[in-house]
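Researcher: I've been going back and forth with a colleague about how Trehalose-6-phosphate synthase might be arranged in three dimensions. Neither of us has a model we trust, so I'd like an independent prediction. The organism is Caenispirillum bisanense, in case that matters for your notes. Sequence below.
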Amino acid sequence: MSRLVVVSNRVAVPDDGPARAGGLAVALREALQENGGIWFGWSGKTAVRPAEEPAVTEAPPVTYATLDLSRCDHQEYYNGFANRTLWPLFHYRLDLADFNRQDYTGYLRVNTHFAEKLQPLLRATDDIWVHDYHLIPFASELRRLGVANRIGFFLHTPFPAMEVFLALPSHERLARSLCAYDVVGFQTMNDLRAFQDYIVHEQGGEFLGDNMLRAFGRTLRAEVYPIGIEVEAMQRTAAHAMQEPAVRRLIKHMGERRLMIGVDRLDYSKGIPERFRSFERFLEKFPSHQGSVSLMQIAPVSRGEVPEYKAIRSELEHLAGHINGVYGELDWMPIRYLNKGFPRETLTGFYRACRVGVVTPLRDGMNLVAKEYVASQNPHEPGVLVLSRFAGAARELDAAVLVNPFDHENVADALNRALAMSLEERTERWEAMMQKVHDSSLDKWRERFLSVLRAVPEGGYGAA
Ligand code: G6P
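Model: Here is an independent structure prediction for Trehalose-6-phosphate synthase. You can compare it with whatever you and your colleague have in mind.
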């Protein structure tokens, strides 16, 4: 079996300690351990004069190779084009997208540099799996250097509708780069259709059936691979997590009151201000819940140097303060807003202790919190998931209480309904969701993608 080479912006180097390795990192590490391989990408650090060659950590049979970024590269590639252009655009926030040519040049420069540094480490038989929007041009850069290996790409975010993608000045170059891959994976049918639509209608590409596309002189496979979680591990952790000191503290403090929980990176795509406003509407519309139901919002700060992220942070501080000021009592606060992360063990306990999981992004590739909330529930007394229809997860978890996060009235009603739901209905919905969570577990996602990538004929589909 050939080696695997994983390329992603963030690399979970084991030296960084276990706390940083989320489910995805663990799953990718396992894939690398099976046949040996390399995990290549950014070190997460900036340097005034970054070393020319990657820093290598050997953990046989896996090699971790990471590069630092210069301040300028970090600004233009990561803060700039990746997170101020592609991220908002892919999440349908054209109003927030900044189309800065200098950032775009920096994005291409880092992709070129990274490809040039990986190329000497490659063997002819390696299979290469590139992740996410930071690295779309990576394969075309490798191809330019003569790399003919199988290269796959998985987009963790949504792929936007054609009309939105067209607003990107460099849409054609990025689409051409995507077609340099042999396999391109999307989270949902919606994303795949948007991509096909663009390739066929804007670029005159050809849909060959069986998820094959021909465009820009190449043939590739573009398919849906919904990402999942480590279901069994999560269930086991959640069962024990009720004994965690932080979880016990929370339960003791809550007493008879009930909790709803939201867990998100502090990102405008997650719809947290809209959620707070919906929660306010819920308190206003159903006053009997005042004093007895709180929303716990865990939102660790993310991409804090990007102006739009700074703005959402102050908006939320203002909103939480306002709602707590208006509705709070001496012994009850409606919103518990925490700008910090918790270890996974603790989080699963929080999920289990909270009657309602509130996952209401305005747009999300998948949203694994939704799946984690479901897997963490006590099978004998499951909570209710209130889920945005604009999260990729809603495609599978259609037994959740689906909502339109832009419609505060709709979300307020859904929260009320979730609290009133009978155990019988909760159990029925939970069982249906658990089935779906099992069907697309993280292992299955990884195995499906890799088996398709490994089945690409030598030299690519064009050569078949
Ligand atoms: C999203 C992206 C990932 C990214 C993560 C955290 O899930 O799809 O690629 O790693 O957010 O964001 P950060 O900018 O801190 O890497």
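Researcher: What would you highlight for our discussion?
Model: I'd start with this: The two ends are 20 Å apart (CA to CA). After that, consider the following. The first strand starts at residue 4 and ends at 10.
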